[in-house]
Design a protein that fits this description.
Arc Repressor Mutant, subunit A; 2 domains
Amino acid sequence: MKFNPTVPIYLQIMDVIKKDVVTGVLARGERVESVRALAEKFGVNLNTMQRACSELEREGVIYTQRGVGSFVTEDDNIIRAVKEQMCGGIVTEFVNGMRSLGFANNEILEIVGKALVL
């Protein structure tokens, strides 16, 4: 994975895992690979991966059963909240990008409307 040097790596990893959860690549209740395996998969330091997993657990995206492993949450409310949070970021980035190009709100809406018809 190629990382953006302006964003902490653990946040970028969290975003990838969250996206996998909300899109169903990682199913609800599915066992998550070990921190060591994930660190290898992402090509990062074990401490970086541990931080990402700890934050995901703090946010409720994953949970750990002692001696068994970590699993994706089955809580619809958490998954919906993560999806809405990610959506908000995408929309904000898009709108800011369009505004920086000089588009007015009504023009942005028109462009989006046309794109949705495609």
